[in-house]
Amino acid sequence: MATVTLDTLRKEFDSGRLVAVDDVSLEVADGEFVTVVGPSGCGKSTTLRMIAGLEGPTSGRVLIGGEDVTDVNARHRDVAMVFQNYALYPHKTVRQNMAFGLRMSTDLGSDERNAKVDETAAMMGIEELLDDRPNELSGGQKQRVALGRAIVREPDVFLFDEPLSNLDAKLRTSMRTEIQRLQDELGTTAIYVTHDQEEAMTMGDRLAIMNDGVLQQTGTPTDVYTTPNSEFVGGFVGSPS
Length: 241
Ligand code: ADP
Ligand code: MG
Hints:
This protein is about 35% helix and about 25% strand. By secondary structure, the chain is an alpha/beta fold.
């Protein structure tokens, strides 16, 4: 487990004409679940990608477990990211998809890898899918596999980028509950990105509300709802005015 610290993190595109992430500072405690919410284009994915090391910041720092990882390559960061589009390897089976990350991030032998995959698959209720390929799975099953692939690595930090956006409303509700249950059980530090206010209000210990690259407010869902610090935040979370 680990804290995540963003220290005046900034990302400019287009030679500085676009500031996607505008000096964001945020401290996520060990084992905390923080939901980052804001409208489309406000810089949520770019922030996550910088935490994962998939994008380098223009300035500022990312610390994981107190260690400055700003210049550390993505594959040497102990984070696992779950994407909206699942990002499964189409030609690999579910077992191979889940084992691949373990091969990259651990020096376990193949028997040990398989045992870990079996254990995680049982926890996720996907044992029966292990020999299937992604195109044989429903959207909900794919996202379950993508979650399993992240969990099996036992990372220090989970990063979720709108993982439920492609699922229908009913499945979305049940997967929300499941992600919360997993997080309670595993106690892994998690940063969960969504543009959906309702999802944000029901998930996470703490909300971080972004608009136009700027972190507007952080607080518990109740705090933010009852005491929004700006018209934007109040409007966004639907506070009574
Ligand atoms: P969100 O995830 O909140 O929808 P993003 O982080 O994807 O927002 O994008 C923030 C802003 O940065 C948007 O204006 C987007 O168009 C821009 N952007 C993101 N990635 C790139 C890139 N690789 N090159 C240029 N602009 C980008
Ligand atoms: Mg995004």
